[in-house]
Amino acid sequence: MRLLFEKSVLGRRGIRVPAADVPTTINLRGDLLREAPAELPELSELDVVRHFTELSRRNFGVDTNFYPLGSCTMKYNPKVAERIASYPGFAHLHPLLPQLRIGGMLTQGALAVLYETDLLLREITGMAGFTMQPLAGAHGELCGMMIMAAYHHDRGNDKTTVLIPDSAHGTNPASAAIAGYDVVSVPTDEHGVMDLKAFKAAVNDKVAGVMLTCPNTLGLFNPHIREICDVIHRVDGLAYYDGANLNAIVGKARPGDFGFDIVHLNLHKTFATPHGGGGPGAGPVGVTEPLVDFLPVSIVVKRNDGTYALEYDRARSIGYVAPFYGNFGIVLRAYVYMLMLGREGLAEVAENAVLNANYVRCRLKGHYKLAYEGVCKHECVFTVTDEMAANEVHAIDIAKALIDRGFHPPTVYFPTVVKESMMIEPTETESKETLDAFIDAMIEIAQLATTDPQKLKDAPITTPVSRPDEVVAAKNLDIACL
Amino acid sequence: MPFISNTAEQRQEMLAAIGLTMEDLFGDIPKDLMAGSFKLPRGLTEQEVRNRLADLAAKNHIDLTCFLGGGFYDHFIPAAIYGLIGRSEFYTAYTPYQPELSQGTLQAIYEYQSAICRLTGMEVANASLYDGGTALYEAMMMALRITGRNKIIIDDSVNPIYRVMMHSYTRNLRIELEQTHCEDGLANRRRILAGLDNETAAVIVQNPNFFGCIDDFTDIAEAAHAVGALLVVSAYPISLGILKDPGSMGADIVTGEGQSLGMPMSFGGPYLGFMASLTKHVRKMPGRIVGRTLDRQGRQAFVLTLQAREQHIRRAKATSNICSNEALCALTALLYMSLMGKEGLRETAQLCADRASYAYHRITAIDGVRPHFHAKWFFNEFVVDLPCEAADVVARLIEKGFAAGFPLSRYYDGMDNALLICVTEKRTKQEIGMLAEALDAVL
């Protein structure tokens, strides 16, 4: 498909700009101007619409079909949330308005959304206060690590290290490192959870905290979670809960009750905001009472007269991690979702997510090798069987064969603690019929892996491109058409 | 329950098929760790929730005529953007890990990277960062990596909202952040040049700066390069329709807030951080990057590339912790730049400047109102001194239906009477005239 720039026709226009009704400017000096306009394409509106409509047809979303991308929680994104986010009262609100004198009164609806979301998230996680500022999950991790650092600084603690299990998402060690900590990786035990002995051996006075996902990226709930939090507290360390997998336990159990001190949530995972092909996300961070003072500014507070206000004067705050109040449009969608599901609905999210994952796990375990036995939470991790390996069938071949059968593949090659891993996360919104169709496709592929493995190597054959050369992409770098 | 497809009967059928009960499925959570409390309200229907949110939306006053800017702008958004950005093949997709199913997202990002390079006059761009502020922070970190140094010089004409963010991020790191105080509305050359030394990683400036004043940083770039330091420029993309691009000034890294490229203000986000640089620095750049390659049948294909810089491969040693960025916002910006095109963007920028110039003359003609700076070159924002406290005047003008501007006392000492006024192409001659009259009346 041709590039947008290759479709450009000299003199063609997509938009007409109003003619100036004021004298031509005298506020610009010639040498401060560019010599020629930027070489943007010249296209009609129809050209643009056709180009992007065609691009959209070369994409696969949750609305297209089943998208069991493990750890990414590709659940259905309710249309009502999109509709509400487009209400002019929200979409066209200037973020500086509440910073003007009496301006807070002009944004009471938006401040109410932020305040109410904070209260709902507190109850869902067992935390004492939230910030909506972080603009994505990883940004929430960094914010959480900054809060951890501020806590230790405040206590006069000399802490240098953060402990993170080797099954963790890569953002965890990266966030801790960017916040200024050394990272010590803790191995996974034979049951698929962080090795308790190795963890205890790694804990010392220099340890600032531990960062954990629970259930973890293998879909397993750590039975020692309470003890882990207790051990870290004994050296005045903090327990950080990566809420990427909260969707597995929402309404059933809360990280605050486990003993965690800091929590971040990926709103698209538990609260169904769309992922946008790689963002925008939102990563609110919650903390327990002793850490509330360290949350970023500003914080929305409710005054005695029932009105909402932004509070900036917080001496122990870590400051600003984002320009305003977070990705408000995303927080708003999550708020809508929480309101619609309510108490029973949210508990059913966890139940159905876990049921769907275990249904897939049990139905596929005779056909693929399960990485870890036993009940899983929101996702299950398989690997290739010995027979498949002998036929040189890899996880990537199974993934590509699924594409030809109309499904998005699971996450492959992550977590790295399992070789040839295939991490399947069905989510709660999918039906039994969809799961059955997926399971049938997986079984058919497993059979092909024995009878005709070349067919899998040839896949996909139904897509506009097939197995692009990533090595060449990195070697002969072409990342912009100039 | 809303959005859950399985019926109670199906759930029973599935449990029976796998020989487990719902209790079994949660049996791995120790009993004493089950939720101590879960006091949430009952769920609402779609009709109820839409009514409730419509009431809340009505409590936000978007009816004020907006002269507020400060880096976040009320620009016109073409209708075609909404139509295309609402295609769920784009917005319900994940990060494009499977290129065969993501050529739409991947090609769009490649085109976005290209458009950003063309606009900024740079050679490479990434797939997006969260916003203009975090993009500037990432540029600072990138400059530290490239130079192996730890001192940064930043002028206080850079957006103060970004500067307070940089302070938060660097608090626990060994980074020397030296701030220069602008001189008559422009980056303080004297202090910047004096501060440049062999320890300096980068000079950070902004164009147009927070006061709307425009500048050419070619001299600063030369001085920085002479000591092995980099020039980082934060830019306002609409202004690049007519202003000299940072690449021509010798910038090494260009970042900015992309909200003005077709995104609604949405009370602070989602926005778009863009970043562009030079080919020689690409391996030190944070964020996703899309590259063009061939598939095994020799067809053009797009993939995520240079992933060895990123957290999912390098973990603690990655160039950044960023994972999700602002892909859909980058797509919005690309749609905007495509619809505007070469001439449309130039005309839009010119109209902003023309109307701002008109507003400047109307407003400074009011008795007691005078320009704050002698520097007379500005794009679409300017600072005036009022005869009394600006915050107070703005409050009085809100009652008359105007968001008249941003009082600078919030971020700058000694600027109690200074007001930053912004004029986009959406503000008509008539609205500008009404603001001038209203301002005259309240003074």
Share of helix of chain A, binned: 25-40%
> Numbering strands along the chain, what is their spatial order in the largest sheet of chain B?
2-8-7-6-5-3-4
- Mean pLDDT across all residues of chain A, rounded? 96
CATH class of the largest domain in chain B: Alpha Beta
CATH superfamily of the largest domain in chain B: Type I PLP-dependent aspartate aminotransferase-like (Major domain)
- Secondary structure class of chain A reads alpha/beta
Structural domain count of chain A:
3
Largest sheet of chain B: 7 strands, mixed
Note poorly predicted spans of chain B.
Answer: none
Q: Determine and state the CATH class of the largest domain in chain A.
A: Alpha Beta
The radius of gyration over CA of chain B amounts to 25 Å
Strands of chain B, count: 15
The count of DSSP E runs of length 2 or more, i.e. the number of strands of chain A, is: 13
Biggest interface and residues each: A-B, 210 and 213 residues
Global geometry of chain A: globular
What percent of residues of chain B adopt helix (DSSP H or I)? 25-40%
- CATH third-level topology of the largest domain in chain A: Aspartate Aminotransferase, domain 2
Topology (SSEs and partners):
The complex is a heterodimer of chains A (482) and B (443).
Chain A lengths: L44 H13 L21 H7 L2 H4 L16 H18 L3 E3 L5 H19 L5 E5 L5 H8 L3 E5 L9 H7 L4 E7 L11 H10 L3 E5 L12 H4 L3 E3 L2 H4 L14 E3 L11 E4 L5 E4 L16 H37 L4 E2 L9 E4 L2 H5 L4 H10 L6 E2 L9 E3 L7 H20 L1 H6 L11 H6 L7
Parallel strand pairs in A: 2-3, 2-4, 4-5, 5-6
Antiparallel strand pairs in A: 1-7, 6-7, 8-9, 10-11, 11-13, 12-13
Chain B lengths: L7 H11 L3 H4 L20 H13 L6 E2 L12 H7 L2 H4 L11 H18 L3 E2 L6 H16 L3 E5 L4 H11 L5 E5 L8 H7 L4 E8 L10 H9 L3 E6 L10 H4 L3 E5 L15 E5 L12 E5 L5 E5 L6 H4 L12 H38 L5 E2 L9 E5 L4 H9 L3 E2 L2 E2 L10 E5 L6 H14 L1
Parallel strand pairs in B: 1-13, 3-4, 3-5, 5-6, 6-7
Antiparallel strand pairs in B: 2-8, 7-8, 9-10, 11-12, 12-15, 14-15
Helix pairs in contact in B: 4-13, 6-13, 7-8, 13-15
